[in-house]
Specification:
Pfam families: DUF4183. With 126 residues, this protein is mostly beta strands. It has no helices and 13 strands.
């Protein structure tokens, strides 16, 4: 018998699902923030979707989440915001207001956090 290359025959099927979870936090400004200044919103200043006070902002899972900031209903560029998870005194959203702009008293600010919980199922048949 001649030499042959022996191969393993394998059939694999993978099913991957992402399960997004979205949380929104709401804040109404209490004073005007001028251009060049930073608006610092503590975790306890936010309300959740039910109108209840927030006690802590969630941790963002690495490589599986992101946050958006809306000011007066308009999505903002990522570079002006800094998100810090944690409880009152630690957790916050900071918005660096660009020179030439301002955030007026009574402006709604929405923080949206989206996290994913991927699951996978792989079936291998030989």
């Amino acid at each position: 018998m001649a030499l042959q290359l022996m191969k393993i025959l394998v059939d694999a099927t993978a099913t991957i699902e992402t399960d997004p979870t979205s949380s929104r936090y709401f804040y109404i400004t209490t004073s005007t923030t001028a251009g060049g200044a930073t608006l610092d919103i503590d975790a306890a200043s936010f309300l959740d979707d039910t109108g209840a006070a927030v006690t802590s902002l969630p941790t963002l899972p690495t490589n599986n989440s992101y946050f958006n900031v809306f000011i007066n209903g308009v999505l903002q560029m990522n570079g002006i915001s800094t998100y810090t998870p944690g409880a009152t005194g630690v957790g916050s959203l900071e918005i660096a207001v660009p020179v030439g702009g301002s955030i007026l008293t009574g402006t709604p600010i929405v923080l949206e956090i989206v996290s994913f919980a991927p699951t996978s199922d792989i079936t291998v048949s030989t």
